[in-house]
Every structure is written in structure tokens, then in C-alpha cells.
Design a protein that fits this description.
Elements: H1 2-12, E1 14-20, E2 24-31, E3 36-42, E4 46-49, E5 62-66, E6 69-75, E7 80-88, E8 90-97, E9 102-107, E10 116-123, E11 128-133, E12 140-149, E13 154-160, E14 162-171, E15 176-182, E16 186-194, E17 199-205, E18 219-227, E19 232-238
Parallel strand pairs: 2-4, 2-5, 3-6, 4-7, 5-7, 6-8, 7-9, 8-10, 9-11, 10-12, 11-13, 12-14, 13-15, 14-16, 15-17, 16-18, 17-19
Antiparallel strand pairs: 1-2
């Protein structure tokens, strides 16, 4: 029944999905609510975007709607996931297994993105992540989980959202993580790192103090658990919405 309902939603929404024989590529443009998308890609050079990326000039996928549910598994090396998403009340379950994965995803950059739930699970080395939530639009109640097993990973994760809970679990050496939480009245990070030679920057910029002294809001909270040699960790917490 769930598969039948998913297919019905895909047909009713305005969706264009195509694939090419060169590598594994899926190009997506989609507009419509209550959209459920399941993708399994197995092989070398998996890619999900808007158009052909093999030539090097591919465009972002474009997805717009409410109550969206993504379940994407990419198994193999040199996976690519990129594009803007405008969505509210949506769930993202992303599994990447392989080396040299590249994810560049803007969610809510050109429209509101409230009630988001992310679960990224990555196994492999030399991954590059650039994740952005919110920008100039409303982004509220974000629950994000990123789990990584591997080495040589580079992460740039910017969350601009109110009511944010971000859980990070990194297991591997030589990882570089830069994360920003901005504009929220409540921001919580649970950060677990197990591995040597880590370089970590955490910035929480939660806005102006409200409610006198002590502040009733905003609230910034970090729970840091690190097992590492030769690690460099810098934390900036500010009652200011300005970039650090």
C-alpha cells in the first residue's frame, strides 16, 4: 500500500525524472505537495541533480513542495548530490557508501523550510559536504543528524534556523568540520568525534539576548565528546546574528 500511495503522489505532482546510461545519473525537477521519493543508486559515479553532470556543467535539481519524504541510497564511489529544495514539514534520509562523495545541497535557500528532519549516514573517505538550511527565509524546527565513518572528510554545514538540534558523530582521522548555527532562539549541538588530526570549528550565533539578565532566550548549548590526538577545536558562541 505504501508503494502504491508513493506512486500516486509522484504522478499527481508535477515531476520530471530521467536517467542516462553514462554513469548513474538522475535529473529531477519537481513541484507539488506530499511527494515521496525513493532512489537506490549502485555503481560508480552516482549523481542526482537537474541535468547531465558528466560534462562538468550540470545544474542543480529543483524541488518545491510541502510534506516531502526522501529516501536516497547511493552506493559506490564519486557520488554527487546537489540542488536547491524548498520544502516544509519534510524528511530526508540519505545514505552514502563509498569514497570521494560530494554533496552540495541548499534547503530553503529560495523559500521557507520549516519542520525539517535530516538523517545523513556516510561511510567512506574523502567526502565533501556543503549543506545549507535557510537563508533569508523562514526556517524553523530543524532536527539534523550526520553520522560519518571514514577519514579525510571535509564538512561545511550552515544551519540558519530557530529551534535547532544538530547531532554529529564522526569516526575517522584527518577530518575537517566547519559548522554554523545562526539566527535561532534555541540551538543545541551534540558533537562526538573519535579520530586523530581533526580540525573543528563550531559557531553558534543565536541573536540578541531577550528577557533581561540572565537571558530567557536565546539559548545555545554544545555537548562535546572528543577522543583524538592532535585535534584543533575552536568554538564561538555569541548573542549576535552577525557572522563570526
Amino acid at each position: 500500500m505504501k508503494k502504491l500511495i508513493s506512486l500516486l503522489f509522484i504522478i499527481m505532482s508535477s515531476t520530471n525524472i530521467s536517467a542516462e546510461s553514462d554513469d548513474n545519473e538522475i535529473m529531477i525537477t519537481q513541484t507539488g505537495d506530499t511527494f515521496i521519493l525513493y532512489i537506490d543508486q549502485i555503481g560508480f559515479g552516482n549523481k542526482i541533480g537537474l541535468d547531465n553532470y558528466s560534462s562538468g556543467d550540470g545544474s542543480n535539481m529543483t524541488i518545491t513542495g510541502a510534506t516531502l519524504d526522501f529516501d536516497i541510497d547511493m552506493i559506490g564511489d564519486q557520488n554527487k548530490l546537489f540542488g536547491p529544495v524548498v520544502a516544509t514539514n519534510s524528511t530526508y534520509d540519505i545514505l552514502l557508501t563509498g569514497d570521494s562523495n560530494s554533496v552540495d545541497w541548499n534547503i530553503g535557500y529560495i523559500g521557507s523550510s520549516t519542520y525539517s528532519d535530516y538523517d545523513f549516514s556516510v561511510t567512506g573517505d574523502n567526502n565533501t559536504f556543503d549543506l545549507d538550511q535557510g537563508y533569508a527565509f523562514s526556517a524553523e524546527r530543524l532536527d539534523a543528524d550526520v553520522t560519518v565513518l571514514g577519514s579525510g572528510n571535509v564538512f561545511d554545514i550552515d544551519w540558519e534556523a530557530d529551534d535547532l538540534t544538530f547531532t554529529v558523530d564522526i569516526d575517522g582521522i584527518d577530518n575537517d568540520i566547519n559548522t554554523l548555527q545562526k539566527d535561532g532562539a534555541y540551538s543545541k549541538i551534540v558533537f562526538t568525534l573519535d579520530g586523530d588530526d581533526a580540525n573543528v570549528d563550531i559557531n553558534q550565533l543565536t541573536g540578541t539576548c531577550v528577557g533581561g539578565s540572565p537571558c530567557a532566550s536565546p539559548i545555545s548549548h554544545i555537548n562535546l565528546d572528543v577522543t583524538s590526538n592532535d585535534a584543533v577545536i575552536q568554538i564561538n558562541q555569541k548573542d549576535s546574528a552577525n557572522d563570526s
